[in-house]
Amino acid sequence: xxxxxxxxxxxxxxxxxxxxxxxxxxxxxxxxxxxxxxxxxxxxxxxxxxxxxxxxxxxxxxxxxxxxxxxxxxxxxxxxxxxxxxxxxxxxxxxxxxxxxxxxxxxxxxxxxxxxxxxxxxxxxxxxxxxxxxxxxxxxxxxxxxxxxxxxxxxxxxxxxxxxxxxxxxxxxxxxxxxxxxxxxxxxxxxxxxxxxxxxxxxxxxxxxxxxxxxxxxxxxxxxxxxxxxxxxxxxxxxxxxxxxxxxxxxxxxxxxxxxxxxxxxxxxxxxxxxxxxxxxxxxxxxxxxxxxxxxxxxxxxxxxxxxxxxxxxxxxxxxxxxxxxxxxxxxxxxxxxxxxxxxxxxxxxxxxxxxxxxxxxxxxxxxxxxxxxxxxxxxx
Length: 381
Ligand code: SAH
Fold this sequence. Notes:
By secondary structure, the protein is α/β, with parallel strands linked by helices. It is 34% helix and 17% strand. The chain folds into two domains: 26-80, Orthogonal Bundle (DNA polymerase, domain 1), CATH 1.10.150; 86-380, TIM Barrel, CATH 3.20.20. The strands form two sheets. It has a ten-stranded mixed sheet. A two-stranded antiparallel ribbon has the order 5-6. S-adenosyl-L-homocysteine binds at residues 134, 136, 138-139, 184, 188, 221-223, 244, 286, 288, 317, 319-320, 322, 363-364.
């Protein structure tokens, strides 16, 4: 059995000193930005002006904020708009409807985000940590361990950057406006709780304070950190919770999602149902279909019994095999039988599309390919 991953709501509390990036306007709410601008000897309205460029017009480069006097621009750029994400590579597939961006952070860490265009919406999948400490054996990010938490602004800037890409019309056949954000990139969002919640506040605050997205269009995906799920339910936010269940029984889930050794299936589902009660939001149950591991008919039936009558939806994810993994995706007939049994039990179930596979942009693959191919620094991260 794998050893327990280090779990705390905020790993920084363990006393390590990770190299966090400089402060950025997206770390602060609007009053915080106004206070900072005033400290710099600028009038408070400059905070709104810069915020409007960043969140309202998706302009991230201070050089392009030409309505600001040059001296002001320079002063504010250094304090409010340091460069957080340096693009290393951008790739597109699915006829341009899926684009992956790979970033280098100020300390050399690599993270990725994915932009997915659909006829009726545009979704970005963003990272909340560099690496991940949850050690799920089928996930590429889980293999390398945790490097550090991302700052609030590093999280938000991924969405703002890609919202700008969408606004430029780069995603053919999709609306130009970013509408959905999923925390399904690298990292465990609820292990970086305070920064992720602050990032959500920026994403939903109306411009110029934030991006003005709908709370319902934000999904936080978690391995199931029970105290953090309960805390999230108590925030005045009603974002969608996705729970990475992957097995209905403790014996298998202990292996697939090692945090299960700490919080069992019944505890994590209880927390999920309480979340659904408090927020009125249907919980999404994530289940990667792994051939001959978790895809047996009896497990579908057990899952069906656990979820029947609950405010839940099952999202089956065809396993995306990671390099060197001994596991494979379930055959389609097995997947269909699994879906049939869940639906017979009265549980709403869909199979997730497999966007981004050609560019290693699909679930669990983010940044792993870069680690393998070209970045010796990242390989040791
Ligand atoms: N730490 C969060 C976010 C991770 S990524 C969480 O675990 O929920 C989002 C989803 O992709 C999770 O459900 C995760 O288990 C799943 N995933 C990871 N690696 C995968 C892979 N190789 N194939 C299919 N799904 C995978």
